[in-house]
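Handout, page 2. Input:
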Amino acid sequence: MTVAEIVDDVRSRGDDAVREWALRLDGVAPALAQPAGEPPRDAVLALAGAVRRWHEAQRPADVRLEVSPGVELARRWTAVASVGIYVPRRLLSTLVMCAVPAQAAGVERIVVVTPPDGAGLVAATARLLGLEDVWAVGGAHAIAALAYGTDSIPRVAKIVGPGNAYVNEAKLIVSRDVAIDLPAGPSEVVVLTDESAEAGVAELELAAQAEHGPGTVCRVVRAGEDLEAALAEIDAIAPEHLVLLGRRAESLAPRVRHAGAVFVGRDSPVAAGDYATGGNHVLPTGGWARAVGGLGLESFLKPLTVQRLTPEALARLRPVVEALAAAEGMPAHAESVRR
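Output:
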């Protein structure tokens, strides 16, 4: 059975389908996860505090402008009403990276799904963050449940969080009907280094990233005399993580265009960003960094535009509307401004 068929089955049969797929794939029926185990409380709260501080600073400003006499436009930001978070097996830090920005944005309802193995630990971590709605169910069927809703798992407006190939395919399929953050695939790190850098530091970065399992991209780009070629190679890859090492690290950082996150210098390891700095580690992979960025506060917000016109302004703009409506064959549009 394909991912698309699993998604369609859950959309059609709801809880019955989710239960059947959970039993078939994980051997465990879906249920609300009960907190179990002892998450590293101090570390979780330290990370949550850093994530909150960094993401609260990202709040975009509302804009209000009289673009011409009597024509006022406003653009204000409002929180997405509900969010579903997919937390891969036991990745407590990913829960923090997704849940805390959602809370900072003002999301009213947050639902967490996570594979049953380790779900108790995820639920215990969620409780530290003030979250209770954690479901021990993973895979494509969990994504479909969030997207379309069941009697047990409520539908959400947006789904965020990384996952395996099946989870990401499911996210892309349901993106026709619900917003998603981005399809985060196998982890990636590129280390840009030169003769002045410590070889051991690059090796540490590659080894750390390789822990994410098969399919992880671990690559070294050597910056010799042709820096332009090295930068062009990096931009072509558009890696999830880019580590800059060597004496030119600081000068090269502003020149990077396409990467999920950039770590500058020997004392800026990717793992610090994963677990402690507050920068978000839910980042684009597979070249998506050429067009999108990682998770941020704006991922949980949406802009709303408000328009106001005075009678005099409408009269002044009427000929513009009438001319364009006529060109496009929209007579009712033209008529609607004659009042």
